[in-house]
Amino acid sequence: MRQLFLLYLLLLTACGGPKQGASEQGDAPTVVRDTTSREVPFQLRLPLPPADLEGDEQRIFLRDHYWDNFPFADSTILRRIDSLDLMRLYMVYVGQLLTPADTAAMRHLMQQASASKPLFERFHQMGELLLYDPNSPMRSDELYGALLEQVVASPLYDAYERLAPAYDLELVRQNRVGEPANDFRYTLFDGTSASLYALKAPYTLLFISNPGCPMCRSICEQIGESPYLCELIERGELRVLMLYPDEDLSDWYAHRDEIPSSWIYAYDKGMLLQRNRLYDLKAIPSLYLLDSRKRVMLKDVVDVALVEHTLLERQ
Known about the structure:
- 43% of the residues lie in helices and 14% in strands.
- It is of the alpha+beta class.
- The protein starts with a helix and ends with a helix.
């Protein structure tokens, strides 16, 4: 919790600090300044948790009361609050006060933001950037799925506007951590095919990649430089399925000799992963770590060290 309060205090300072004359025992005010607007800049008072709360109780209090003083019903609020400051507020809330299990809190926030369509869209956009972007350290399919459920059900959007979030929601619900991964058939260099679930090993690393992509090459090198992962692969405890999901096979053929012989080098014939929406392919490379029953342990990551750490924890 010390880190939480340091970040919380940093937010207070970054957004302008305490307002003169504020009560020492009241809410801690944060001045959010907008230098481009002639309207009075919005002043958000962030609540301080009672002194008798400890541990996770403090986080829960802040989670439940963080937006208490935000005027969702004020139609001028987006003109009176700086976009970067609003994002900073949202980042602290999502990154420090929410856990993947706090889906009800995310739903409630989006219900509050539905007071106006512009505000609802802004919170949708911020959530997409922080919770769904593959490069975001705050990415969370659970929280973003809860957000999307509110978006898809919102009367503020017409049927056309719901198409993209509905598509994203379908993808977010696929291959969730702790649930079985979607099965599919892959094709090998000699034209034979097999299914993901036919791979028998304690662990499977599904490595969705594009031949020649720099980050894909870096991941290959990191796996090869990990004594622990190499030992698991050599003992047959970890199978690596390197899958190319597109249809132009010229580069895929050309890079065959660069792939370790112990790996399964395959492609998705017919691009069924994308056409059947079996996996989210908006960003490549992508790693899925699966257990012996093909349940998802890690979803859509690029951190080889995280894969190694997750496997070490299972030993």
